[in-house]
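User: Structure tokens for both sequences below?

Assistant:
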Amino acid sequence: MPVALINPFVVPTDKEEEFLRAWNETTRVFSSTPGFIETHLHKNASVGVGRFQYINIAFWESADAWNSSRGSYKPEEESIPGVEHYPGIFQEVIAAKSLREVNWRMSL
């Protein structure tokens, strides 16, 4: 069963460029790892609200696939001074889609 890695980051303002470069390299490495499906990095659009400036949401074929990938590569962004991260693996419990999308597709 696919799982979602949800990893919020605290990134000091003066470390954002370094963080993004490191995250791109981590994505390059993990995207070729068995079990990787996709990833999306989101930036907090609510200036001054919330603790986390970035949240990574990635999908893996299984928790084992994600755990395996971690054994072979330590992401560079974890070594940047001041950057904190809180990864967790989650299984989907409830899914919902926009009714507008469902209605649009039904009208085709």
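Moving on to the next sequence.
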Amino acid sequence: MALTETKVIDQITATENGIVLYREATRILKDGEQIAQTYHRTSLTPAQDLTGQPANVAAICNAAWTPEVIAAYKAQVEQSKLGA
């Protein structure tokens, strides 16, 4: 009986305001058959430091975070601070 644990990014989503959400699944396998699974979700905002993020997530962020998206996100944050 061999138990193994694997981690995989199984979802990556970019929202309309540039926030990138991703889900990491941790799977426990017994003799190659999955017996358990848990999830950890993370969100990243435009222009956030990507140090330590998985390469496939960073690639999506770099594609989604155009200068226009970053500027619009920062403007939205500033606007919400003024309205609060």
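User: Anything stand out in the second?

Assistant: The radius of gyration is 17 Å.
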